[in-house]
Each structure stands twice: as C-alpha cells, then as structure tokens.
Amino acid sequence: MMKNIRLRRLLALYIDFALAVIVSTMITKIITLGHVTIDSSPIILCISMLINTTLLFYFIICKDLAFKNASVGKKLFGLHICYTNGDIPDRKIIMKRISTCILLFPLDIILIIFKNQTSGDEEYHTQVVNKTHKKKNFVLKREK
C-alpha cells in the first residue's frame, strides 16, 4: 500500500471521476437506446448531453456516499472522510463538502497536492485519512 496520502487521494479522485463518466455515459446510451450520433438533430444531441451531464454531476456529488463515508476510489486506497475530531460526518455534510469541491475543482487539485485538504474539507472541518484510524474524540494527524 502506498504511504503518500496525497497521491492516494489524487488517484482515488481520478478513479471516481472515470467511473462517473463511464456510468453516466452508459446510462445515457441506454436511455437514448444508443441512437444518438453526431448526425442526430441538434435537439436530440442537446437532450442527450443534458442527460449525460446531469447524471455525471449526480454521480460525482454522491460518490462519497457509496461506502458511507468513502467513494470507490477512497475505498480502494484505504481512505475515508471524517471530521477533524474523528467523528464520521452525516450524508448532508458529505454532499455539501463535495459540492464545494466541484465549484473550485482546479483549485482543489492544487490544495490536495500542497495541503492535503480541499476547499470542502476546510469549510466543513473534514479530512481524508487512512481507514486504520478508528478512534474517536481525538484530533487525527494528517500525514505530511
């Protein structure tokens, strides 16, 4: 298992985004019965793109709810989301956290690299830590 938590967070983010793109595209193909091509009418293309984009944002916003407080990527790399005091945030906070991250997406990549925290982590006092941290009521130290 890789020790660098920042690299694991970035790889987990990449996996989650790739899964969201693949699943939203597959569902869009099913909904449109696979008949949308570049030669389709502009209205059909716009509807298809709207469906795909809506599904993509839905999957990205809900990604950390897949395993209560971890996404598929985080689960693969042994990470999870918790408050800075060790408690597990509820669904509403997790969704607000990721929504904030989406709004500041390019900045959040830089924040993960340099601070191991996203804008959503800072705003909602959460952090992504190794799954091995199971104790509560203490401040978890982030790996440098």
Description of the structure:
This protein has helices at 5-31, 42-61, 72-76, 91-103, 105-115, 119-124; strands at residues 79-83, 126-130. The chain is mainly α and 144 residues long. The chain is 57% helix and 7% strand. It is elongated and about 55 Å long. The protein contains six helices and two strands; from the N terminus they run H-H-H-E-H-H-H-E. It has one domain (5-130). Helix 1 (5-31) packs antiparallel against helix 2 (42-61) and helix 1 runs antiparallel to helix 5. A two-stranded antiparallel sheet has the order 1-2.
Q: Hey, roughly how much beta strand do the residues contain?
A: 5-15%
- Series of secondary-structure elements, N-terminal to C-terminal: HHHEHHHE
Number of discrete helical segments: 6
Low-confidence parts: 136-144
The share of residues in helices is: 55-70%
Strand order of the largest sheet: 1-2
Count of domains:
1
Head-to-tail CA distance between termini: 16 Å
| Large-scale geometry | elongated
Q: Count the beta strands.
A: 2
Largest sheet features: 2 strands, antiparallel
Mean pLDDT level: 86
- The value of Rg in angstroms is 17 Å
Structural class: mainly alpha
Quick overview:
By secondary structure, this protein is mainly α. It has one domain (5-130).
List keywords for this structure.
elongated, disordered C terminus, single chain, 144 residues, 2 strands, mainly alpha, two-stranded antiparallel sheet
What secondary-structure arrangement, pairings included, does this model have?
Layout: H1 5-31, H2 42-61, H3 72-76, E1 79-83, H4 91-103, H5 105-115, H6 119-124, E2 126-130
Antiparallel strand pairs: 1-2
Helix pairs in contact: 1-2, 1-5
